[in-house]
Amino acid sequence: MSSTRRVNIEVGVEWGLFLCASLSIFVTIGILLVLAFETFQFFQTVSPLEFLFGTTWTPLFFDQQFGVLPLVAGTALVSTVAMLVAVPAGLLTAIYLSEYAPTSVRRVVKPILEVLSGVPTVVYGYFALLFVTPLLQNIVPGLSGFNALSPGLVMGIMILPMMSSLSEDAMHSVPRGLREAAYALGATKAQVAVRVIVPAAFSGISAAAILAISRAIGETMIVTIAAGQQPRLTANPLVPIETMTAYIVQVSLGDTPAGTIEYQTIFAVGMLLFVSTFVLNLVSNWLRERFREEYS
Amino acid sequence: MRSDRRLSKLADLTLKVAGLLVTVFGLSTLAVLLFDIASDGLGRLSWQFLTSFPSRRPEAAGIYAALTGTVFVIGLTALVVVPLGVGAAIYLEEYGRKSRWSRLIEINIANLAGVPSIIYGLLGLAVFVRLLGFGRSVLAGSLTLVLLILPVVILSTREALRAVPSSLREGSYALGASRWQTIYYQVLPVALPGTVTGLILALSRAVGETAPLIAIGALTYIPFAPDGIWSPFTVLPIQVFNWVSRPQAEFLRNAAGGIIVLLGVLMLMNGVAAFIRDRAQTKMHL
Amino acid sequence: MTSHSIPSLSGVAAQSAKKHDNSSGLKTDSTAAKIDVQDLCFFYGETQALKDISVAIPSNRVTAFIGPSGCGKSTFLRTLNRMNDIIPGVRVQGRILINGQDIYDKATDVVELRRRVGMVFQKSNPFPKSIFQNIAYGLRINGMGSTRSELADRVEESLKLAALWDEVKDRLKESALSLSGGQQQRLCIARALAIQPEILLMDEPASALDPIATQRIEELIYQLKNDYTILIVTHNMQQAARVSDATAVFWLGRLVEYDKTDKIFTAPSEKITEDYVTGRFG
Q1: In this structure, which topology does domain C15-123+198-277 adopt according to CATH?
Q2: Do A135 and A147 touch, CB atoms closer than 8 A?
Q3: Same domain? A197 vs A122
Q4: What residues of B are in the C interface, CB distance below 8 Å?
Q5: A146/A221 same-domain check
């Protein structure tokens, strides 16, 4: 092969691979453009203030109101329940696995936890609707068939492995020296874990928690199946609500032509969803960077 | 002093027990879930169930359309994501090591990995279904899933490439090989098992995805198997979702049966991935 | 320091000498030198690893490079086949002429350079392929064997050159990783020789091997030098004394002394050299 031909092939290959890598930039630009475009159109009809601060959401009814707060409240409610489960349980699991559990236990438990996080969300939705809700209805009076409690709990379990594994990583990064110094002073495992490791790993653990919240907010199928389709501005986890994600599904299942205001609402809500998760991810990354700087 | 010691020991024990209980609780939820699904749905599994199309009558309904839909969609997704994802990973890992543009791409990919899956659905809806006019087809669905799992494929392929020792590359360069020759003939073959494993795991995630495909308009009632990339389609999780949304108990049983099929497909894929990973491990330690 | 008899260098250069600046007692006409290094400086980013290296290396000889760890010997070797190009952020100043041509000139074909200047690494790095494929790879990418029989012939040739043929001729299809450490290193030498280089760079080729394997490698080097110009980096001074015709001493990125091996080890001119070879530091 002549050397010019060889060089041409090399350059060609490099350019081709470069384009593949740059595709991801176009995806991000695409997401931003698409969401921004339709949201902009939406704001020609509905004022941003009404959207962001209005308390009634009925775009699909005859009397259309476009206040998104009920959807935000629904998302926040379910996510809060999920966090109340995932954060403490995930942290406890992480502490147990990293400080107490023998290697054999860890080797069995960790793959199973991974399986937990790999179960498709429709399956969790089924579980929430048909097992957890009926079960809770025996315990909690007044729990309606669709509610925020049941999907919240199930979502918490789904996110627990992620919280646990990220917290474990954070705790693992704490230098051995700190650990050993504490043990040398005669501290128990609990004292070391709670008084030394967790505080030292705090930014890493917070980063994990924030990432978990971001995941909860973006979760779709569990809430679509089990939380209901009634946008409601409430803090009561026992009644049906609707989350931002479930709303998008609801509209997508229907026959909404492009260009209509209803069509635009899914992008406006999508934009809100995207911005919230993006900001949370940024904060989480920033915390993780700070954590890494502390210990390197 | 003494009671202090005893108190801390008690606290220690409490923490240990609490940690153990919580862990067990988490694990047992999985067991309960699987048991619940199995008891609801195992009875429904039958040859008829696997080979029938959905129907208004739950006893006659089956999962065939969804199963073939999944195969079509995931197959096309795999075909498209391999060159794009592996290509991007090769570039980032072997060519653009220190350039600022590469850093930007890396950060971008990390961000994309954290975007909710339904947003990808909206992107697919606007770009593939509407702008490019692909309609609610297998093609639009697959391309949307490609964008969704692309970050994961890139990350896992990069790991596989990174695991290839640099002494291999050096040996190749010293013989006068070009960068691409070195990558193609030496690095890729060694990184292949890790790449394939990562790919299968990414695809198994795509198999379970519902939201983005609903957003691009995959209809929930499809009584036929797809007949090409332009065909409308449904997939296993959407079919399950459809059945779960009906009040009749028989449809709920169908949903459970569908879930078992879905989980079966996933187990198969993960099993293959684990098998490849193990075989590669033993081969390397020759 | 024992040294078995090495053919004397004074018989080589019949032309008049051109002395180089840095304490080189070696009279070599630089125009007849195979490799002529002129004021070479090398930088890893801000750090300068090689300082004003000038040396003329004759052909068909073994030249050893000794000195404490980290003083630039390997870096120097890798400038000769431009392996350092792979590392981002490196800078080269000065000239390196091989057969009279500056290898850092823009017009130089790096691929062809690396064919002519072969390299054997400290830790043997055979490809995870069969013994045959290890050698065939270099042949194929350099267009030196299109038919199976051509390839087979050249593979056999190079394995014989590396004194490995008898041991592996019946198992060419087996994985190269199934060979012992010493055999793997000889395979790497065969792999380098297959593409017919003129110069062979060896970076501590025997440091990971047991004494018997090391001896075989040294015997091999002794046989090869009739047809190749060999540069060997070693931290084993006895090895340098046994195997090489001339020795260059590196210290902190500088070339301190370059002379016939005999002289370096028995009557060095520089104090640093004397301290190093007598073991006062290392």
Answers
A1: Rossmann fold (3.40.50)
A2: no
A3: yes
A4: 97-98, 165, 167-178, 181, 185-186, 189-190, 284, 286
A5: yes
A189 → closest Cβ in B12, B114, B122: B12
Residue at A56 is within a domain: no
Asked whether B205 and B155 are in contact (CB, 8 A), the reply is no
Q: Which residue range forms the structural domain that includes residue B273? A: 50-284
Look at chain A and report how many structural domains it folds into. Answer: 2
Instruction: Tell me, yes or no, whether B25 and B92 share the same domain.
Output: no
- Give the neighbours of chain A: at least 3 Cβ pairs within 8 Å: B, C
CA dihedral over B152, B157, B158, B163, signed as positive or negative: positive
DSSP A243-261: -HHHHHHHHHHS---TTSH
Put simply, whether C127 touches B (Cβ < 8 Å) is yes
Q: What is d(CA B37, CA B59) in angstroms, rounded to the nearest whole number?
A: 18
Flag whether residue C89 sits within 8 Å of chain B, measured between CB atoms: yes
Prediction ipTM score: 0.92
Nearest CB among B30, B217, B220 relative to A112 is that of B30
Are residues B75 and B95 both part of a single domain?
Answer: yes
Q: How far is CA B209 from CA A120, B118, C64, C116, in A?
A: 7, 9, 63, 55
Chain A residues within 8 A of B102 when measuring between CB atoms: 21
Q: Count the domains in chain B.
A: 2
Measured between CB atoms, does A3 come within 8 Å of chain C?
yes
Cβ contacts of residue C190 below 8 Å, gap of 6+? C135, C158, C159, C161, C162, C164
Q: How many residues does chain C have?
A: 282
Are A40 and A73 in a shared domain?
no
Q: Write out the residue range of the structural domain in which residue A39 sits.
A: 3-45
Q: Which of C177, C142, C170, C141 is nearest to C156 (CA)?
A: C170
**Do A13 and A155 fall into the same domain?**
no
Distance from CA of C199 to the nearest CA of A (A): 22
Query: CA of B285 to nearest chain A CA: how many angstroms apart?
Result: 22
Q: Which residues have a Cβ under 8 Å from the Cβ of C157 and sit 6 or more positions away?
A: C194
| CATH number of the domain to which A184 belongs | 1.10.3720.10
- Residue (of C193, C191, C186, C179) closest to C220 by Cα position: C186
CATH number at residue B239: 1.10.3720.10
Q: Are residues B179 and B140 in the same domain?
A: yes
User: Is the pTM for the entire model greater than 0.95?
Assistant: no
B116 and B6 share one domain: no
Do B225 and B154 share a structural domain?
yes
Dihedral sign from CA coordinates of C177, C180, C181, C187: negative
C107 CB near a chain B CB, below 8 Å?
no
Q: Is residue B82 domain-shared with residue B224, that is, in the same domain?
A: yes
Mean of all residue pLDDT scores within chain A: 91
Same domain, B67 and B170: yes
Of A51, A35, A67, A24, the residue nearest A275 (C-alpha): A35
CA dihedral C82, C87, C90, C96 (to 10 degrees): -10
Residues A95, A207: one domain?
A: yes
Lowest mean pLDDT among A158-162, A226-230, B104-108, C5-9: C5-9
Q: Tell me the pLDDT band of A296, cut-offs 50, 70 and 90.
A: low
Sign of the CA dihedral with C165 first, then C166, C169, and C171 last = negative
- Give per-residue pLDDT as tens, B252-268: 988 999 999 999 999 99
Of the candidate ranges B74-78, C61-65, C263-267, the one whose mean pLDDT is the lowest: C263-267
Tell me: do B40 and B64 sit in the same domain.
no
Residue C26: pLDDT over 80: no
Spacing of C-alpha A73 from chain mean position: 16
SS3 B138: helix
In this prediction, residues C149-159 reach a mean pLDDT of 92
Q: Is C119 on the interface with B (CB under 8 A)?
A: yes
Whether A40 is in a domain gets the answer yes
